[in-house]
Design brief:
- By secondary structure, the chain is of the alpha/beta class.
- It folds into 2 domains: 220 residues, Carbamate kinase; 117 residues, 2-Layer Sandwich (VC0802-like).
- The strands form 3 sheets. It has a 9-stranded mixed β-sheet with strand order 3-5-2-1-8-10-11-9-12, sandwiched between helices. Strands 14-15-13-16-18-17 form a 6-stranded antiparallel β-sheet.
- α2 packs antiparallel against α3, α3 runs antiparallel to α4 and α4 packs antiparallel against α5.
- The longest helix is centred in the N-terminal third of the chain and has 26 residues.
- The termini are far apart.
């Protein structure tokens, strides 16, 4: 049993879905769990639906039409007749989505978010499953929400591993192809849909691998594997042939976008290898994450995170920033759901670089002003270099406004206002 995960780029149109079939055939795997994400940029489109839903001037009907038309076009590229059951399934799924939006009474944005964006994965998996069946690949469509049970932390749910293990072991066959959704779960009290965080489909693949004792996991991407830098921002990149679990977790922690931070931990516990390969060249070796050498080849790795906020605090009476003060800061960071990316403190100051994922910055700043002198910079970029050399750091910082720098033996980080 192996686990394949296909992201949005691999199912962005009808030709891409057909290429997924080509990958399955070229790898000649018969016993698989296939995890699929929402198609293309549909999660973003569904976020627009939510935005319009909560806005007095929003046009929900038009936003939904965009999502529907996108999927309808893919169906017409896959099936010769609009009478195919896949078209009926699309209609029924959209009726379910519209019914939720019409009857929902909750004002909890995170709850509504999970109920709505989940339709991206549900529709995608149903289309791919139907096409597999159409061209003779027998498969079983599985609603992942019946398997992955979580708490009610909407948009970033925590997995109940005991319940999830039992359900996956019961519902998933070790033989044949099971096709399911990434990113989704359901909370164990009321069975409302939850999500595992953006890019959580990789995590879903790891959950299935752990619970099924899979041979390995392959994440299929539009890149040849894990690169030492994001080619969208860096002109010279190198393919990493092998990364140890520990190094991959470090890279994921600092924000390497190819691997989701939660994905690696369950795989490491059972020493299940993770492969990152190109769906454009399925027979190429890609990158292996597993036991062995830390990094092959040995090279510097560059990571950046954009649109962060740097908050700088100092005590109002110039007293030391000790454990009690810093404890209050972290309590409030947790309360307002800020993801901490970097911290630095001195005797009378404390700086923290955060990701304002839930748009709670103003509320946090108001709370911090009650006790501290507060300064902040929005839209900063955090650069991280693993296994750096001084010349690379100098070149990166040249002609840039460096607000903060932090250096350890293996890692240097720069907060830059660009």
């Amino acid at each position: 049993m192996k686990i394949f995960k296909f992201g949005g780029a691999s199912t962005k149109d009808a030709d891409s879905v057909k290429n997924v079939v080509s990958v399955i055939k070229q790898t000649n795997e018969k016993d698989l769990v296939v995890v699929v994400s929402a198609m293309g940029k549909i999660t973003n489109a569904l976020e627009e639906v939510i935005k319009d839903y909560f806005s007095e001037s929003g046009d929900v009907k038009n936003a939904l039409r965009t999502v529907y038309d996108f999927h309808y076009e893919i169906l017409t590229g896959l099936f010769s007749s609009t009478s195919h059951p896949a078209f009926v399934e699309l209609e029924n799924t959209f009726k379910e989505l519209k019914l939720f939006l019409e009857t929902n009474k909750s004002k909890n944005h995170a709850f509504v978010y999970d109920q709505v964006v989940s339709f991206g994965e549900l529709i995608s998996s149903k289309i791919v499953s139907a096409y597999f069946s159409e061209i003779g690949i027998n498969n079983t469509w599985l609603d992942v929400r019946q398997c992955i049970k979580t708490d009610a932390s909407y948009r970033d749910a925590n997995v109940d591993w005991e319940k999830t293990q039992k359900r996956i072991s019961k519902k998933v066959s070790q033989k044949g192809i099971t096709l399911t959704q990434g990113f989704l779960g359901s909370e164990h009290t009321n069975n409302f849909t939850t999500t595992l965080g953006r890019e959580g489909s990789d995590y879903t693949a790891a959950i299935f691998a752990y619970c099924l004792n899979a041979e390995n996991v392959t994440i299929w991407k539009d890149v040849p594997g894990v690169l030492n830098a994001d080619p969208r921002y860096f002109t010279q990149t190198r393919l990493l042939n092998h990364i140890s679990y520990r190094e991959a977790i470090e890279l994921a922690f600092y924000g390497a976008s190819v691997i989701h931070p939660k994905t690696l931990q369950p795989l490491q516990r059972k020493e299940i290898p993770l492969y990152v390969k190109s769906f454009l060249n399925p027979t190429a070796p890609g990158t292996c994450v597993g036991k062995g050498v830390t990094l092959d080849p040995q090279t510097s790795c560059f990571i950046l995170k954009k649109n962060l906020v740097l908050i700088s605090l100092s005590s109002l009476d110039f007293s030391f920033m000790m454990e009690d003060n810093i404890g209050d800061v972290f309590k409030w960071l947790h309360k307002y759901k800020m993801k901490v990316e970097m911290i630095q403190n001195s005797a009378i100051s404390f700086s923290v670089c955060v990701n304002d994922k839930f748009n709670n910055l103003e509320s946090l700043l108001a709370k911090l002003r009650e006790k501290f002198s507060v300064k902040w910079n929005e839209n900063v970029t955090l650069y991280t270099i693993r296994h750096f050399n001084p010349a690379e750091v100098k070149a990166l910082a040249e002609n840039k406004n460096v607000l903060l720098k932090q250096e350890s033996k293996e890692t240097v980080q720069l907060v830059i206002k660009e």
